Amino acid sequence: MVDVAIIGAGVVGCSIARELSKYSITVSVIEKDSDVSNGTSKANSGIVHGGYDSKFGTLKGSLCVQGNSMFKDLNDQLHFGFNKCGSFVLAFSSDDMVELHHLYENGKKNGIKNLEIVDREFVLKKEPNINQEVVGALYCADAGVISPWEYAIAMAENAALNGVSFLLNNKVTSIAKKENHFTIQTDKNTINTRYIINCAGLYSDEISNMVGVNRFKIRPRKGEYILFDKEYSGLTNSILFQTPNNGSKGVLVTPTYHGNMMIGPNAEYICDKEDTSTTSQGLATLQHKVQKTLKSIDYSKAITQFSGLRAATDTYDFIIEESQVKQFINVGAIDSPGLTSSPAIAVMVSKLLLNAGLKLKKDHTFNPNLTPIIKVNELNIHDKNKLIKKDPRYGRVICRCESMTQGEIVEALHRPIPATTLDAVKRRARAGAGRCQGGFCSPRVMEIINEELDLPVLDINKSEDKSNILIDKTKKSMEVHL
Amino acid sequence: MKYDLVVVGGGPAGLAAALKAHQEGLEDILIIERDTVLGGILNQCIHNGFGVHKFKEELTGPEYSQKYIDKILNTNIQVQTDTMVLHVTKEKELHVISASQGYQVIYAKAVVLAMGCRERTRGAINIPGTRPAGVFTAGTAQRFINLEGYMPGKNVVILGSGDIGLIMARRMTLEGAKVNCVLELMPYSNGLTRNIVQCLDDYNIPLKLSHSVVKIHGKNRLEGVTIAQVDKQLKPISETEIYIPCDTLLLSIGLIPENELTRECGIELDIRTKGATVDQNRETSITGIFSCGNVLHVHDLVDYVSEEGEIAAIGAVNYIKSNKKSKKEFAYTVPMEGISYIVPQKINIGDQDKTNIYLRVNKVYEQCVISGYINNSKIYTKKYTKLTPGEMVSFNIDKGKLSLSEQDQIKFKIEEE
């Protein structure tokens, strides 16, 4: 029996796990996929929003601003990487300027301090390459970018080191309400727990239904993105939104934490919760809409396109509450600004648990700090040489596009939440995230996985089960092995 | 550490450059190679057809590179493998990292850049759909099969009829895979004619010209692709869409010179070739830094890569030996109608009389003439029965006879016979 079971290891589940690891309680995280941060959390804009566009008086409004203020300290402790690059909402007409003032007023009510309406000159000084027809902007210095999966992984790893157990590859199939606890059945295990926190993202409605709470229905909203070569880094410096009008949010241009330019997302409601395909129409829409911000983009500099599904509902706000089934807490409908809000959501959930009768006693052994994977690139020459002398693997570059060494990849395979797939390595050690998209390094990364984890090469997956990269040995090599 | 010449890259261009520089009497030469062995991409090119021009025989890739490696090992040329060059500066300092030596700064009198090229990926051509396992660039699949001994799939569609795609169509067939078809966006193939005959026709693999992949299907492993014919503007025609079940999609959709070091160094690049802008000695906009092989422009035959490595080596040796810092005066080559690029882009008129010109045409031409003009007067002309974008055109012009002056433009174009 555990005290709390968290269903879903996205940014919200991982944030809650880390928050709860501060207390002397037992916590398990149950995740259907092979890695944490594998759904919506890995495919979004990666933005720590200012919080001016979340309606005042809603959970989104308060949690987004509160979450934003937590990122600096979190990054100091967990080192996932946070670039407070600031954001502009760009106006191209007097109508847009009117809308900016609405956003400004709303932001002020939400409690944002560093928010101002700036003129054309201010914008163009910071962003000289954008469409010169810009007339003004709403500037928020507190907005920034993170790599969303590295943030979630860091939260999960810190939680794991502080005693939270993670059950990956476990899909919840049923939940039985007992007198004072729940029995969660997964496709592999049975878990008894006193409290359940449902943060299953796209599937949070279905998990809620398992205990008979039909409070909300998720309507997946697809957002497609195009990511560019680092050759384009420096073309823009801040997060660039377009002023929303007539219900359209426009598309944004942002640097990612790692310095790639990214454009997106569109927004399309779909039915299939697994449909993360990109579409020719969706990508064309992006290319059309982005022209308002950047007049010409060379799409041959794109390195990948992807889409993510937002766990949206028909209502505007997040749903964070103890349900009518006691000790079952729903954390649902977490669409944008869910990433920014996640650390604040975690604090709110701990209070809900307290109110629901769970004793939360501070665990004095809690260590808030996480030692990240060594980043060879960021060391000075002296430290590089000291490290390489101690462990030569940090001198062998495996991923040439992102300059990632064997040492860093090996570390990723032995972290508190270890990588076991190519995508998981990519999310922890960047190998395969660069301009060649793994063309050069994937055979070598597979060799390292094979050696370090003793996993047969033919069993190495790209991501989930049955996503194996290779299917057989060649005829010749089979003869040799006979 | 100091060297007269540092060659970045130990593939065919770098090997030829280092060997030639040694033969020209240079003593102090270092080759830096990121892989654990020399030879570059030739190591995985186990098919034959290399060296027809250079050695008058058909060699495999490893045989071709071994000819150079054997000679180099008999010289005092230094080789540092398993070493990555991270930065090259204008002052010709090379920042490198390796497991054995750590982080080093190496000083060179001259540098030859020979980093080769990489394959374009799915992202560069915006193919919509899911992102399953089973979508490979042709070269990655080639490495898995030829060097690692593994099959990336059994039921294959190939997009792009570049030479690697054609070679892989045959290779996968020989390994027992079913290759459904090779699709080519353009109305003509970018591959060598001999490869279309020997790799597709001989195995009854259909080549579908003016076709592309419009959607990728499958959640975990590739399940199929939707293909369609494209119109003259290269836009897919939706009525022609067909679904082909397959577990593997190989992409052979072009090569990109790998010029990240070059760009960072501040060397001028040509948007046409995506390589450095060079003179006839393959010297870049920064004196003493030379560029050759596929990092300069993508070649069709390795023989020309080696040839260009030697040109760059001679340039580098002369640069090191001469010490002359005379002002350079350039005339320029200009690609006009029908020509997609020309290397070299400029001609240093105070230097060497014979200039080797490489160029590519922008589509298929039959019974045509390539002509060169300076100020409307014809200075060069040659007839061809057929020219295709996939096959490089190479010829010499004798600069001495042209009496070029500074800023002259030599305009090359395709004309009807």
UniProtKB/TrEMBL annotation, chain A:
Top-level taxon in the UniProt lineage: Bacteria
Span of the signal peptide: none
A Pfam match: Fer2_BFD
Positions of the BFD-like [2Fe-2S]-binding domain: 397-451
Residue ranges constituting the FAD dependent oxidoreductase domain according to the UniProt record: 3-351
Record-linked InterPro entries: BFD-like_2Fe2S-bd_dom, BFD-like_2Fe2S-bd_dom_sf, FAD-dep_OxRdtase, FAD/NAD-bd_sf, G3P_Oxidase/Oxidoreductase
Coiled coil: none
Record-given protein name: FAD-dependent oxidoreductase
Native species: Alkalibaculum sporogenes
Lineage of origin: Bacteria, Bacillati, Bacillota, Clostridia, Eubacteriales
From TrEMBL, chain B:
Keywords: Oxidoreductase
Signal peptide positions (record): none
Domain FAD/NAD(P)-binding: 3-300
Pfam family, one: Pyr_redox_2
Molecular function as annotated in GO: oxidoreductase activity
InterPro entries for this protein: FAD/NAD-bd_sf (IPR036188), FAD/NAD-binding_dom (IPR023753), Metab_Enz_Cyan_OpOx_G3PDH (IPR051691)
Protein name from the UniProt record: FAD-binding protein
Biological source species: Alkalibaculum sporogenes
